[in-house]
Amino acid sequence: MTRRLADLGGLAALVLALGLAASPGRAAEENDYPTDARVDYVFACMAANGQTRENMQKCACSLDQLAAILPYDKYVQASTILSMRQGVGNRANEFRSTKVFDDKVADLRRAQAEAEVRCYRG
Fold it and tell me: Does the pLDDT of residue 12 top 50, yes or no?
């Protein structure tokens, strides 16, 4: 039993030495996207880029990078704005012509561009 605990202690030290243990705040920030949102993103990405295993891996990478850059609540806000902009009428026009909404969408677009560079071109 003592040897087993010592082995586990050594494993924990190795993980820490390799930098695989993120601080709790950072891990929470990067993993705040719920599973269903992650799956929806990857499915939509694959629909746009092709239904191959390689594209699935790139799309998953892209989402991981996006999640590291943009908190989930900001992703939801920007996605909602983009969805509302597809409508017609005064309500949709409000979402198209408001600077605050433009800024939220721009944050999402920048994060997506960075994720694309890291996962598709890097």
Answer: no
Asked if residue 5 belongs to a domain, the reply is no
The two structure tokens encoding residue 3: 């040897």
Does the structure show a pLDDT above 90 at 44? yes
Distance, CA of 65 to CA of 106 (rounded, Å): 16
pLDDT (tens digit, 9 = 90+) per residue, 66-82? 999 999 999 999 999 99
Dihedral of CA atoms 30, 36, 42, 44 in degrees, nearest 10, equals -130
> Can you give the residue range of the structural domain that contains 95?
23-121
> Scanning the structure block, which residue is given the tokens 């599973």?
35
- Taking alpha carbons only, the member of 37, 45, 40, 24 closest to residue 74 is 37
Q: Domain total for the chain?
A: 1
Under 8 Å between Cβ of 110 and 73: no
Cα gap 111→21, rounded to integer Å? 24
CA-angle at 28, arms to 24 and 34, nearest 5° = 155
User: CA-CA distance, 111 to 117, in Å (whole number)?
Assistant: 10
